[in-house]
From TrEMBL, chains A, B, C, D, E, F:
Pfam family, one: CMD
PANTHER family for this protein: 4-CARBOXYMUCONOLACTONE DECARBOXYLASE FAMILY PROTEIN, CARBOXYMUCONOLACTONE DECARBOXYLASE-LIKE DOMAIN-CONTAINING PROTEIN
Organism lineage string: Bacteria, Thermotogati, Deinococcota, Deinococci, Trueperales
Segments forming domain Carboxymuconolactone decarboxylase-like: 36-119
InterPro entries: 4CMD/NDH-1_regulator, AhpD-like, CMD-like
Protein source organism: Truepera radiovictrix (strain DSM 17093 / CIP 108686 / LMG 22925 / RQ-24)
Name of the protein: Carboxymuconolactone decarboxylase
Domain of life: Bacteria
């Protein structure tokens, strides 16, 4: 039922691979260092069970994740999924549209903060727990 | 700059027409009755300026709106955009996926409430302000 | 330091009297029935200590309370302070402006819900815990 | 790693049994009817993986769940976990304390709404999706 | 209908001029650099359409904005409107009252964070996107 | 009715003493410097009235406070109550469980942020307003 049941097969790892790219091993290590049990839940449930479900393509899923995170607040997690969306083929222009639209539903202050996060995206540094979420 | 500048042309009304269908006139009447100034802002800014922007297709925009509203709470507005998404070609299965994924980012209670809203969608009644948002 | 220290003098009761009017005794009874300890905290701290502070007039304080409640959600508490604002001399037009402005900061869905609450204000029914908050 | 891996053994079902009591089968049926995939996630991840973890007793876990839900809003899910807490040995007096304390951290309006939910708890009706969350 | 229709006349710019003072041109430049479309929406809709509406004086509007932002979180946007309120004639004492009252409706932690923001207000640095929102 | 009525007796100060330990005087000084009126409200109402109430032990109360703060956001206040929980006898393992469970109710991003706050707890520095909340 969960990704853990499918084991660490290349097919099962496709969500993490597509979203984390070359940094996958380092990100997983950082998450495990933060907390191995929370790491396992995130890996198995969020990424390999839910985000891996068919029915919505992964790029759309990442745009939805960005939208949810604009409402939640928290720049770190938002940047993680902004990068994930770009790795899935979203353009900066599409992410800009997601943010402008979010202003209508959660207000302009949260949209402004998100736009600053988008413009402040650098190439990812040495992976630490900041890369995950 | 805004939809108001484009006037009430069929092209400019395409977002409201696509999302509200045959109920468009009645919905706009109900919104105007609720408050003419808030109605004008919503019509001009939310629908005809922002949701009408190119760069993201309208079906994706409605899935993003649903996601934002799952986080915000409030069943009425969520149902409006669930219906809008269906009118744009989203399937109930895709909306189910949007909701399941939202549980990862805003928690299971809000996702449960959204799933009840999705399953409780009836054909829209006599349009009132409930249709808009 | 708190309203309780000032006792139940007419001066000290002025905030509750101004906001609850002729329903004051009934509202306090309903709140006490809901929970006597929470009732005492709300009466002493919210109303007679904080809302009674000089520095901001009570009408402004009620407009601020309405704004906070638009963000928090929850129609019942919002209606209580919409009525309180009207009893303090705010007009329906001013409350309309508070709601329209709130859309900019917390999004249009919450503002729409608040506008429905404003338009749905009836004369208060038999006071119960719904009148307080 | 998840409850699903442990199968539907009486030991593994202990969290759902303790929290849902005699209504367990009916509640699970209602949740499955709402959405079988969301139901499976909630059953396996929320209840049988996370709430079943050692390290915190189940009564404390339910008090924490109640606190989280006071902040989230949503009366239905809150009532579910108020009942779960009572089934775990919490007293109405302890739940009252949880609510009064919540006022300090998330404000009095949310605490008031929660106190109404607590006082409005009836014996659970025919189980439907309202019992879960 | 919107401020954009009124053009960049001194009368139409009065809201931005009153709230941003001598930094207006620099702030607008920084916002435009962040994103020209979001900048135009904020300028036209938030400031020159909604905040420019009659019915509430601008000082009251800024106190309401501060209250909304205490609930939303996010120190940057809060500081922008704390400064705007001061420029409109609000006193630090009045802003203190707004914050203390907010504790009743959204909890003490958010009020504490807002009080730190108020006490940490410095004269505005070289204007960047931080000044807007 | 409130802690203030009981005066600054050792018994009445037990909540602050237990939660703030040797830093109590410095913390109270920092809070007073931030704002004497907000400080008095927090001291009298939050700590010495509500958290001092019988019915729930203080360790449980701090776990509930941590849960509330995970939902609210804001790392500073969360760290204050993580430290308070540890001073009350909670273990890092128990706090980890509180955080993992919070993911189910408010989503994984907020839980991740809280886990980083827990792992980033250092011995408290020179007390300032950061220690209170």
């Amino acid at each position: 039922m969960t990704g853990a049941d499918r084991g660490d097969q290349p097919g099962a790892a496709s969500v993490r691979q597509r979203l984390w790219g070359a940094q996958r091993a380092a990100i997983e290590g950082a998450l495990h260092t933060l907390d191995p049990d929370l790491a396992a839940l995130i890996t198995d449930v969020v990424y390999e069970t839910v985000l891996a479900r068919p029915g919505l393509d992964l790029k759309t899923r990442e745009l939805l994740a960005v939208t949810a995170l604009i409402g939640v607040g928290g720049e770190r997690e938002l940047k993680t999924h902004l990068r994930g969306a770009l790795r899935c083929g979203a353009t900066v222009g599409e992410l800009k549209e997601v943010i402008i639209q979010a202003a209508m539903f959660v207000g302009f202050p949260k949209a402004l903060a998100a736009m600053r996060a988008l413009r402040g995206l650098e190439p990812p540094p040495a992976p630490d727990a900041a890369e995950v979420g």
